[in-house]
Amino acid sequence: MKKVLIFLMLVLGTFTFATDGTLVVGMELAYPPFEMSDQNGKPTGISVDMAYALGEYLGKDVIIEDMAYGGLIPALKTKKVDVVISSMSVTEERKKSVNFSKPYAKSYLGMLVNKNSGIVTQMDLNKKGKKVAVKKGTSGHTVAEKYFPNAEILVFDKESACVLEVSQGKVDAFIYDPLTIYRNWSRNKETTNPLLEQFETESQPWAIAYRIGEEDLGAQIDEFIVEYKANGGFDKLSEKYLGEEKAFFKEKNVPFFFD
């Protein structure tokens, strides 16, 4: 196995540009267990393991670039990173500026609601006077504008800020994926409730983003995803990082990421 190089080039806002022997992968290390840092500041998680495996498949060393989620696509377009692997949903808007691989997972959106909000079903949020927190640039942000036009939408840069607003009763709900909703509800059971029923018409496929015009790389990524899945790679990641959550989702009849 080729040695994997990991650099977090955050000092002075500098970035590492790829050479022929490296694959620079952009992600925001703020979404455990998919993208996160361990106690020593080293990147870890499902997306990190995927990046390493992709690098090995392509015969390249991997450099992880940690950056704000909203900056990932701009960094890809300006060649500061080669690909984005960051639990990114495929949307028509994003497809206007970048290409996507075959989906490797799928999700949908749930809600964390304040216990005193009066919200029993998701559509209760679509009322004048209701407030919803969303993380900037996420699918939750887009979906909130589509499904809840009567609510006031408050945009935050960090997930933690959205959760705090709900927990303190400053907003009625936070829209995000069901895993995040489940985990934040587990930490805030006294003040919040989880709504995990699907209210969208379709699930959100996750894929690896790459630049338009680099279809050869895209074809290799697609081949990697097919082979990785066939060899049980995603099953192993689920067992390593999501064993408890997968059991909970199954119990509640909630679709799982890699089903």
Structure description:
The structure is a single chain. With 259 residues, the protein is an alpha/beta fold. The protein has 2 domains: 11-106 and 203-251, D-Maltodextrin-Binding Protein, domain 2 (3-Layer(aba) Sandwich); 109-195, Periplasmic binding protein-like II (D-Maltodextrin-Binding Protein, domain 2), CATH 3.40.190. It has 8 helices and 14 strands. It has helices at 46-58, 72-77, 139-147, 159-167, 178-187, 215-230, 233-241, 243-251; strands at 22-27, 36-37, 43-44, 61-66, 83-84, 99-100, 105-107, 110-114, 131-135, 152-156, 173-176, 192-195, 204-206, 209-210. The chain is globular, with a radius of gyration of 19 Å.
